[in-house]
Structures are given as structure tokens and as C-alpha cells.
Design a protein that fits this description.
The protein is an alpha/beta fold. It has twelve helices and 13 strands. Strand 5 (about 85-90), helix 3 and strand 6 form a beta-alpha-beta unit.
């Protein structure tokens, strides 16, 4: 896959070296790659002598990643000051719509550098390195350390391992490459307790998340002769389970694991007029390409979108479009 870039790794490092202040941000509803890459970039920026380093995201750090060193320093726009930075670094996304309120700080910066591995028609930023050949933005950030000649510290190794492991599904997704394993091996050689990390990010489940899973599985419905499965999480579910909104993340994998399923869809009711859609797929169905028509994006096998529609209306519109496509290929 061809990179869409006007700067290479050396050029990105050169721009970091000349910045006196930087704000680092990522996408809405940050995942492990977004959080891990943000923290690793912040460490790199400090190592390069940048005096003021701010980490900012539209949404709080999910509870799943709050244990990572430095995670508590990632601010939200409500708590952050309105300071103009020399450089804004956007990681793990390259479109304005995915930045939310954090986009204001990016627009105010004197220059914008984008580092991403998702395909985009027209990446934002004055300088951008968008290469879908990377399995995770964490891989790109790790090679950025190499290009800068900066050693990776133990805490940064944890952040990078989380970034790479989560975006490859624990090295199980088809985006996993030989480079992925080589980079991960370097991190493991630094003494990481990968069993403990994997337990935290893949296997742990709070009682409240289990309650949401129970409700989601109870609502699951199949279409296209079992090739499509969908379910929903309502606002009343979040309230009844006393769960955090981020505890919905990851529930969709239990739907996708059914043998017959090619496309799994989770609808999450944000309010009476807005629905978040998560999609996971296999057997060649490109979730990111499909959800582009709804303003979404992501990976070929894992993507999402937010629709300005009530949940049932959003479900009807999306299923009407996806079911015939999957039915033709199943």
C-alpha cells in the first residue's frame, strides 16, 4: 500500500526538533493505539528538547488504558488552557471530523504534522506521513524514535506495545506483518510483562461491562442467512449497569466470533438523535470503505461512524444497505 506523504520519518523528526512547544492529539473515542501513540510521541518530544509538551484529546482516556504511565496527563478541551503551540501533532487520524473539540487547538497551532496509518482522500496538516503499510500508528511512532536516534524508555515501551497489540487484535488481525513482530519483539526484549499487559487490555472485564455484554448478546439478531449479526446498547443499559460509556468498547468482538458471521455491527445510542456504529468484518468485506458513506472510517476489518439519527432509524438505514451486499458474497 502506497504512503500518502509529503514528509518522511527524517522530515518529521526535523520538524519536531525545531518546535519550542507542541500539542499532541488523536481521534474521538481513543483506542489503545491512539493513547499509546500519544504517550510515546510525548516522550519523544521531551527527549528532543521541546520545552512545552501538551497531550490533548476530545474524550477522556478510557478506563482500560488509565494505568499507562502518563495517561493522567492527557487533557480534555474543557480542562486545557487555550495556548497557541508552535506545532500540533495529530496521530492515528488524518481528518478534521475525527478530532472533535480538540481540533480547535490543532487549528490554532502554527503548523500541523499528521502521523497516521489509515487511508485518507486528503489528509489534513501542513506536513503529513500517512502510510497504511503500518499495522498501527504505534509502529510509525516507534520508527520515528529510531529515526531520531532516541532510545525507548521502559514506560514508553509499554505504551508502544499497547498501541501495536491492540490495533492488531493481539497480533491476530490480517494487518499484522513481519515488521509488526520484529518491532514487538524489540519491546518485549526490554523486559515487558506481556502476559500482564495482555490480561489488562484483552481479558479483564468489570462486572458492569459483563452486564452490558449480557444485554447486548440478549438483543443480538442475525440477517443475510447468518452472515450479518447486529445488536444495540441503549442509554438505559449504561444507566442500569452503572457503566462508563467506554465499557461498550470491545463488546462487538463477541458478535463477530460466531462462525457464520462476515459482518458484525454494534449500535450504541448516544442520545435521542445520535447513534454510534461499530463494525467488524472478515472475508474481504471492507468496513471502513462501507462506512465512508456515513462519514465514518477506520480499518478494513474494524471501523466506526456516528450517525445523526435515532438508534432504530440508524439501524434500519445501515442494515438496508449492508445486508444486500453481504448477501451477495456469502
Amino acid at each position: 500500500m502506497t504512503p500518502m506523504s509529503n514528509v518522511d520519518l527524517a522530515g518529521a523528526v526535523a520538524r519536531l526538533r525545531t518546535a519550542g512547544s507542541v500539542v499532541i492529539t488523536s481521534h474521538l473515542d481513543p483506542d489503545g493505539d491512539a493513547i499509546g501513540s500519544t504517550l510515546a510521541l510525548a516522550d519523544l518530544a521531551r527527549a528532543l528538547g521541546i520545552r512545552e509538551v501538551q497531550c490533548l484529546n476530545n474524550d477522556p482516556v478510557p478506563s482500560l488504558y488509565q494505568w499507562l504511565p502518563g495517561a493522567s496527563q492527557i487533557e480534555t478541551p474543557e480542562s486545557a488552557g487555550n495556548t497557541v503551540r508552535d506545532l500540533a501533532v495529530v496521530v492515528d487520524t488524518s481528518v478534521w471530523d475525527r478530532l472533535g473539540a480538540a481540533g480547535d487547538a490543532v487549528r490554532q497551532a502554527r503548523e500541523v504534522l499528521v502521523l497516521d496509518h489509515h487511508l485518507a482522500d486528503a489528509p489534513i496538516g501542513d506536513r503529513f506521513l500517512v502510510d497504511p503499510g503500518y499495522a498501527a500508528s504505534g509502529e510509525l511512532v516507534m520508527e520515528l524514535h529510531d529515526a531520531a536516534g532516541v532510545d525507548i524508555r521502559g514506560e514508553t515501551a509499554e505504551a508502544l506495545y499497547v498501541a501495536i497489540a491492540t490495533d492488531t487484535g493481539g497480533f491476530r488481525f490480517s494487518n499484522t506483518t513481519p515488521r509488526t513482530h520484529r518491532l514487538a519483539a524489540r519491546l518485549v526484549e526490554m523486559g515487558l510483562d506481556v502476559a500482564a499487559i495482555s490480561e489488562r487490555i484483552f481479558d479483564g472485564m468489570s462486572p458492569t461491562k459483563f452486564e452490558l455484554l449480557r444485554r447486548a448478546l440478549g438483543r443480538a439478531e442475525f440477517a443475510a442467512d447468518g452472515a450479518v449479526v447486529h445488536s444495540a446498547i441503549l442509554q438505559e443499559d449504561i444507566q442500569a449497569a452503572q457503566a462508563g460509556p467506554d465499557e461498550v468498547d470491545g463488546l462487538i468482538k463477541y458478535l463477530r466470533n460466531v462462525d457464520s458471521v462476515q459482518v458484525a455491527i454494534m449500535f450504541r445510542e448516544l442520545d435521542d438523535t445520535t447513534t454510534k456504529v461499530s463494525m467488524r468484518s472478515r472475508n474481504g468485506f471492507n468496513s471502513a470503505e462501507f462506512l465512508q458513506q456515513f462519514g465514518g472510517g477506520g480499518h478494513a476489518l474494524a471501523a466506526g461512524a456516528t450517525l445523526a439519527l435515532p438508534l432504530e432509524e440508524a439501524r434500519g438505514v445501515l442494515l438496508d444497505r449492508v445486508t444486500p451486499i453481504v448477501g451477495e458474497t456469502s
